[in-house]
Write a structure and sequence with these properties.
This protein has about 190 residues and is mainly alpha-helical. Helix content is about 85%, strand content about 0%. Helix 2 packs antiparallel against helix 3 and helix 3 packs antiparallel against helix 4. The longest helix has about 40 residues. The chain starts with a helix and ends with a helix.
Length: about 190
């Protein structure tokens, strides 16, 4: 009788152990699905401790470690992309390119950072070209205003008038060339 009772108790204990193991696996999987990594880790660790020879809990613990690493990497990627997008929207293209590159290193297979680098570089190139053009216009304007003053001083009024008109056309918002044109036209009208 004692042997039968011991066998029966052992069988009950094994059944309870199996039920607990199965429950831990189900709870662990649910925790993974809801991205509750610590809970999932705890469940699979308990399952592994209940049945150390089983491969599934060990595989799941490895999977959780990978998912946790990816989640951390994803968070870093999201933060970099958010910062890069803000910089891009503020027309800080050079810094946005650096952030997009850093994001691209984390997940090389995602095309969005690479696409944004191309856009940011194009915008940066356009901005640089625009600045160069503005400097060129500013230089030409200053040269024309200087030349106009020189020609006016030498009484070459038609040449001075042409210089001031060209300067006015380059920078229509400037008042000075308009004033000089009026002065010269008034002088010419008196002659």
């Amino acid at each position: 009788y004692d042997a039968a009772k011991a066998a029966y108790d052992a069988e009950l204990a094994l059944a309870a152990n199996n039920a607990k193991y199965d429950k831990l696996l189900v709870e662990g999987e649910a925790a993974i699905k809801s991205k509750k990594w610590d809970d999932a880790k705890k469940k699979y660790t308990e399952a592994r401790d209940l049945k150390p020879k089983e491969k599934l809990p060990k595989e799941k613990l490895y999977e959780i470690e990978q998912l946790m690493a990816n989640a951390e990497k994803q968070g870093e990627y999201d933060a970099l992309m958010s910062e890069a997008n803000k910089l891009f929207n503020n027309k800080d293209y050079a810094l946005s390119i650096d952030k997009y590159r850093a994001a691209s290193v984390l997940f090389p297979s995602i095309s969005e950072p690479k696409d944004q680098i191309v856009k940011a570089q194009a915008a940066l190139d356009a901005m640089i070209a625009d600045e160069a053009k503005k400097k060129q216009i500013e230089q030409r304007y200053n040269d024309l205003m200087t030349l106009g003053a020189k020609n006016k001083g030498e009484d070459k009024l038609d040449a001075a008038l042409g210089n001031y008109k060209e300067a006015r056309d380059l920078k229509p918002e400037e008042q000075q060339p308009k004033d000089r044109i009026k002065e010269i036209e008034d002088i010419l009208a008196q002659r």
